[in-house]
Design a protein that fits this description.
Number of domains: 2
CATH superfamily of the largest domain: Ribosomal protein L6
CATH topology of the largest domain: Outer Surface Protein A, domain 3
Helix content: 10-25%
Number of strands: 13
Largest sheet: 4 strands, antiparallel
Low-confidence stretches: none
Shape: elongated
Structural class: alpha+beta
Distance between the termini: 63 Å
Oligomer: single chain
Radius of gyration: 21 Å
């Protein structure tokens, strides 16, 4: 049996869950999320917890079982606590600034990189070199962080670029010359 799928998802105080067929809607203090889940899994709300079950032991059912439970858990955590991803910008003259829903990055190119933030994601800039990305949708927060990082990935020689705060850059030795 799926170790992730068999765990029930606890519903914290202040979170409402509603089911309509295979569509689940979770509302909390930070907002609401809706997800259409595969029809092969069965979802039940029982006594302050959500239980996900599968019809058989087929490989696809086992995979969808764990996936569905993880998606529901991320929705519950998102609407109650939210998700955060921190990026750091390293490099001389590299900086970021936010105005409204537009993020402007100076990353050593001849032009500034302008990125329109998606709805449901907010970015906070600290000291022009540290970005904090917040939102209730884990997938959206992660993909936004990955997109911002892709504008200038950290290089291994000087470590310049945009990296995750917990990421460690493996450094290489430069050219050896006289």
């Amino acid at each position: 049996m799926s170790r992730i799928g068999k765990l029930p998802v606890a519903i914290p105080a202040g979170v409402k869950v509603s089911l309509e067929g295979n569509e689940i809607k979770v509302q909390g203090t930070k907002g609401s999320l809706t997800q259409i889940l595969p029809e092969r899994v069965t979802i039940a709300v029982e006594a302050e917890q959500i239980v996900v079950t599968r019809p058989s032991e087929e490989k696809q059912d086992v995979a969808l079982h764990g996936l569905s439970r993880s998606l529901i858990y991320n929705m519950v955590v998102g609407v109650s606590q939210g998700f955060t991803r921190v990026l750091e910008i390293n490099g001389v003259g590299y900086r970021a600034e936010v105005s409204g829903s537009v993020l402007t990055l100076s990353l050593g190119y001849s032009h500034p990189v302008v990125y329109q933030l998606p709805l449901g994601v907010e970015v906070e800039v600290e000291k022009q070199t540290r970005l904090t990305i917040r939102g209730i949708d884990k997938q959206l927060v992660g993909s936004t962080a990955a997109k911002i990082r892709s504008f200038r990935k950290p290089e291994p020689y000087k470590g310049k670029g945009v990296k995750y705060a917990e990421e460690r850059i493996l450094r290489k030795a430069g050219k050896t010359g006289k």
